[in-house]
Specification:
158 residues; alpha+beta; Ubiquitin-like (UB roll); DNA polymerase, domain 1; 2 domains; Carbon-monoxide dehydrogenase small subunit; metal-binding; oxidoreductase
C-alpha cells in the first residue's frame, strides 16, 4: 500500500492505495467523485479525462500514486464558485453538445484544456483535439459548436 496526498478540485485529500490503483478508480471509489466516467479502461474513449497539474490526462492510464503531490481537477470542480455552470458547461447545454451525457465530463475537461492552450481554435483544431474522445450519440457537430461558442466565436454559421 502507498500513502498519497494530493489536491483535488482545490481541496487537500489523502488516501492509501495499492500501487496498481488507477487515478480514475481512486477518484470514483475513494473520493466518490463519480463524474469521471470509465468507458473503456484502455485509453480509447476519453470519458475519464481530468486535469493533472493543468494538463489533460486520461485518468484510466495513470496510477493514483503518480498523482501524489499533484493538483487534480475533475468535472465536479468545473462549475463557477456560486455553483452555476462555467462557460464551457453552459455552451454544451445551450448548443445541445450532449445527449446521453456519458462522454460529456471527458469532453468538457478536454475542451477546457484546449481552450487554455488555444483560446480561439478553428473548427478543425477543435475536431483534431477531440480525437481522443469518443461520443456515440451526437455526431460531434454540436460538441464542436459548443466549444467554438465557449471560445467566444460566432457559431451561427456552423
Amino acid at each position: 500500500m502507498v500513502d498519497i496526498a494530493l489536491t483535488v478540485n482545490g481541496k487537500a485529500v489523502s488516501g492509501e492505495v495499492e500501487g496498481r490503483t488507477l487515478l480514475s478508480t481512486f477518484l470514483r471509489e475513494d473520493l466518490r467523485l463519480t463524474g469521471t466516467h470509465i468507458g473503456c479502461d484502455t485509453s480509447q474513449c476519453g470519458a475519464c479525462v481530468v486535469h493533472v497539474d493543468g494538463k489533460a490526462v486520461k485518468s484510466c492510464t495513470m496510477f493514483a500514486a503518480e498523482a501524489d503531490g499533484a493538483e487534480v481537477s475533475t468535472i465536479e470542480g468545473q462549475a463557477n464558485a456560486d455553483g452555476s455552470l462555467n462557460v464551457i458547461q453552459a455552451a454544451f447545454q445551450e448548443h445541445h453538445g450532449l445527449q446521453c451525457g456519458f462522454c460529456t465530463p471527458g469532453m468538457v475537461m478536454s475542451a477546457a484544456a484546449l481552450l487554455k492552450e488555444n483560446p480561439k481554435p478553428s473548427e478543425a483544431e477543435v475536431r483534431e483535439y477531440l480525437e481522443g474522445n469518443i461520443c456515440r450519440c451526437t455526431g460531434y457537430h454540436n460538441i464542436v459548436k459548443a466549444i467554438m461558442a465557449a471560445s467566444g466565436q460566432d457559431v451561427s454559421s456552423h
